[in-house]
Amino acid sequence: MREQLLLFCNWSTLGVCAALKLPQISAVLAARSARGISLPSLLLELAGFLVFLRYQCYYEYPLLTYLEYPVLIAQDALLLLCVFHFNGNVKGAAPYLAVFVASWFVLPLQKWIIDLAMNLSTFISTASKFAQLQYLWKTRDSGAVSALTWSLASYTCATRIITTLMTTSDLTTGHSMLNGSPTVMLSMKSHD
């Protein structure tokens, strides 16, 4: 029973994450606007995903416990390009993408760097949520954000807490995931 639950949680999380940001991306493309999406929030979320993926790779955790992160990073990178495109400045994404690529190589240079980054990822995730909430409060417009994305993210956070506890018992990553589900909730659209 335990193995079946673990297998179900891993594969369903991967399947859901394969489409997690697609409603968001679709809403942005349909609206031809990035209205309602906070650039700082998106950048912080991307940073959190990158740190989490690098941490998992560094400690050689089982691939199925983090395989969705490359997909999430690719979807966030596409969303980032959409934001810059609809704001009229696609080239403006280049410095951010360069920093993310450089970070991939810097994070594992020393064990303390990757550990510190992972411990800070909860703060990064919280800052991402706060930035999105602040942006929504300021603009009073959820624009092209998606409630379906929030629902899917909530599911994947719950399943990842289960798989982390069952596979690695790494409380650092489990704690970080507890903070993940509301990330998109703060940017949800009421009529999705």
From TrEMBL:
Record keywords, A-Z = Membrane, Signal, Transmembrane, Transmembrane helix
What InterPro entries does UniProt report for this protein, alphabetically? MannP-dilichol_defect-1, PQ-loop_rpt
Q: Where in the cell is it found?
A: Membrane
Q: How does it sit in the membrane?
A: Multi-pass membrane protein
* Domain of life of the source: Eukaryota
The stretch of residues making up the signal peptide is: 1-19
One cellular component (GO) term of this entry = membrane
Q: Which residues cross the membrane?
A: none
Could you tell me which PANTHER family the record lists for this protein? MANNOSE-P-DOLICHOL UTILIZATION DEFECT 1 LEC35 -RELATED, SOLUTE CARRIER FAMILY 66 MEMBER 3
- Protein name, per record: PQ-loop repeat-containing protein 3 isoform X4
Q: Taxonomic lineage per UniProt?
A: Eukaryota, Metazoa, Chordata, Craniata, Vertebrata
Report which gene this protein is encoded by.
PQLC3
